[in-house]
């Protein structure tokens, strides 16, 4: 299975601060990477697919980048509603595998 | 609008089978896409369990070996998860989800506890 190493495990950001979350794959996943946000008590929501494509309806402060084995999610200007747990998911090979998650809190 | 909703028992005894239903509205599951089951364990770990495609083919996570089965009832626009020989390690919140370019629609999730 492809291992997804996600970092950091948790972080605290101030209002308006730029946040970066990273995922490293154990092998090349050819940009087959998605990012999800899960708020407390809710289902995960798709933010980014194909490494850098913004899902319809997702605020433009979210962006994704990367290639090969290294990917990142950026939030340009932390907002209170951005609190939650963020996951990466590789869809290059079965079984699909998730990162361990990053808990993001407002400082 | 596409909606998915899981249903099933919240408590299952060890060694028994876990059976869940995902009811889909707003889209016919035979029209396209893959329809997956995903679970979230206590402590945030997420696991993709498997899918049934619009054509009826299936693909399972090898970690679940021969314990898992995903089937469907096209007349009711539902698909199902059966997980056999459950242990306490199968305690999790179970989600069904539709995959297009990513998992773009999810159910609200159902918490299943395995306990005697």
What does the model show?
Helices cover 0% and strands 52% of the residues of chain A. Chain A contains no helices and eleven strands. Chain A has strands spanning 4-7, 10-13, 18-25, 33-38, 45-49, 53-54, 62-67, 70-76, 84-90, 97-98, 102-106. The termini of chain A are far apart. The mean pLDDT of chain A is 98. Chain B has 116 residues and is an all-beta fold. Chain B is built from no helices and eleven strands. In chain B, the strands form two sheets. In chain B, strands 2, 4, 5, 6, 9, 10 and 11 form a seven-stranded mixed β-sheet that branches. A four-stranded antiparallel β-sheet of chain B has the order 1-3-8-7, with no helix packed on it. In chain B, β5 and β6 (58-60) form a beta hairpin. The model of chain B has no long low-confidence stretch (mean pLDDT 97). Classes of the chains: A mainly beta (107), B mainly beta (116). The interface between A and B is medium-sized, with 24 and 18 residues.
Which key features would you list for this structure?
heterodimer; A: 107 residues; mainly beta; seven-stranded mixed sheet; four-stranded antiparallel sheet; 0% helix; globular; B: 116 residues
Please report which band the strand proportion of chain B falls in: under 5%, 5-15%, 15-25%, 25-35%, 35-45% or over 45%. over 45%
Averaged pLDDT of chain B, please? 97
Q: Which range best describes the helical content of chain B: under 10%, 10-25%, 25-40%, 40-55%, 55-70% or over 70%?
A: under 10%
User: What is the tally of beta strands of chain B?
Assistant: 11
Query: What class do helices, strands and sheet pairing of chain B give?
Result: mainly beta
Question: Regarding quaternary structure, how should these chains be classified?
Answer: heterodimer
Please give the largest β-sheet of chain A. 7 strands, mixed
Unreliable runs of chain B: none
Q: What would you report as the Rg of chain A, rounded to the nearest angstrom?
A: 13 Å
